[in-house]
Structures are given as structure tokens and as C-alpha cells.
Amino acid sequence: MSRKTDIENRIRERLKPLHLEVIDETHNHNVPENAESHFKIIVASDDFDGKMLVARHRLINELFANELASGVIHALALHTMTPEEWHAKGGEAPQSPPCLGGGKNQ
């Protein structure tokens, strides 16, 4: 199973999201091919209702604590919203900025 699929499965199991996108952005970074180490996660869930942004991010980070601690997953760009926030944004999340730390173009 790919790391992307594992991330999707864990988030679905824990949050039962209205919307979930897991985007592997590893190719934008200077890491070995097929590293599966940088991901953008866009998730809308009722579980975020009443939670501050930092609490939402901690919830996601806790799901992948071992992978983050060991460096298997280097970065998670998190966009965490309630269903109401997701709809208010028109079902859009911001684009990820370009990698500035040792990018492939250097």
C-alpha cells in the first residue's frame, strides 16, 4: 500500500470527512524518487467544529506521529476545515508554495 493510501485510510477512519484530498507533493522537493515524504492534506470534517486551527493540526499530526518523528514523512501541509468552512471557500484550498529548501532546480 502506498503511503498516500495509508494516510487517506487513517484520516477516513478517524475523522469520517465530508471531503478529503491527499496530494503527494514529494516531486516538488529535492528528495529521492518515490520517497513519498511530502503531502498536502485537505480535509473537511465535523470533528473540527469548535476546534482552533492548532488543535485541528495536532489531531492530524497525532495520526502520523511515528512517521513524522522518524522522518518517513517529512512534511504535511494541512488545510483543515469544518464542512461549513469548506463550502464557504467554494471547495477550494490554496496552492502550495514552491519548495525553497534545496529544490530540484538548484
Describe this structure in words.
There is one protein chain. The chain is α+β, with helices and mostly antiparallel strands and 106 residues long. The chain has one domain (3-88): 2-Layer Sandwich (GMP Synthetase, Chain A, domain 3). It contains four helices and three strands; from the N terminus they run αββααβα. Strands 1-2-3 form a three-stranded mixed sheet. The model has no long low-confidence stretch (mean pLDDT 88).
Helix proportion range: 25-40%
Question: What are the low-pLDDT stretches, counting only 5+ consecutive residues below 50?
Answer: none
- Spatial strand sequence of the major β-sheet: 1-2-3
Shape: globular
Instruction: Supply the CATH class.
Output: Alpha Beta
Write the layout of secondary structure elements.
Layout: H1 3-15, E1 19-24, E2 38-44, H2 53-63, H3 65-70, E3 75-81, H4 83-88
Parallel strand pairs: 2-3
Antiparallel strand pairs: 1-2
Short description:
With 106 residues, the protein is α+β, with helices and mostly antiparallel strands. 34% of the residues lie in helices and 19% in strands. The chain is built from four helices and three strands, in the order αββααβα.
